[in-house]
Fold this sequence. Notes:
Layout: H1 3-18, H2 25-32, H3 36-42, H4 46-65, H5 74-91, H6 93-101, H7 110-115, H8 121-132, H9 141-160, H10 168-182
Helix pairs in contact: 1-2, 1-4, 1-6, 5-6, 5-9, 9-10
Amino acid sequence: xxxxxxxxxxxxxxxxxxxxxxxxxxxxxxxxxxxxxxxxxxxxxxxxxxxxxxxxxxxxxxxxxxxxxxxxxxxxxxxxxxxxxxxxxxxxxxxxxxxxxxxxxxxxxxxxxxxxxxxxxxxxxxxxxxxxxxxxxxxxxxxxxxxxxxxxxxxxxxxxxxxxxxxxxxxxxxxxxxxxxxxxxxxx
Length: 188
């Protein structure tokens, strides 16, 4: 791992553990085994590192969600997307916690969010196609995305907090409830 990657990973670990404002650059440098000047060689400030972490995770989302989708059946595609995101969160707890605690306003500004929209174009197109084909409810796209991903986030939270085991049955129940929220019950 090169120095830049160590700085990014260290910042990720520290801000998830103790928060952005409680993470001084001197601590990042010490934990990453680099000089403070080395950090400023790669980044202008702490906010730029946070932005890079946010962008990396958004890029991961865009790739992970759309991985291994079957060609046809929208419901099966949705199920794979849902499980892809859930498994990504469970396998990457730092990314999950970062997005929960750091990847939100005011730390992540609307401008930074807009810069990362291209990572989600395929996802938005998937949902729009489902609405246009009348397989999904004809509701505001932002609402549909929030309901879908909020469900995945809630399931991951239950597991991380130890409130539910999130065994196969519970995961499938959460997935089915999520699908039931967005599917079009009247496709006429």
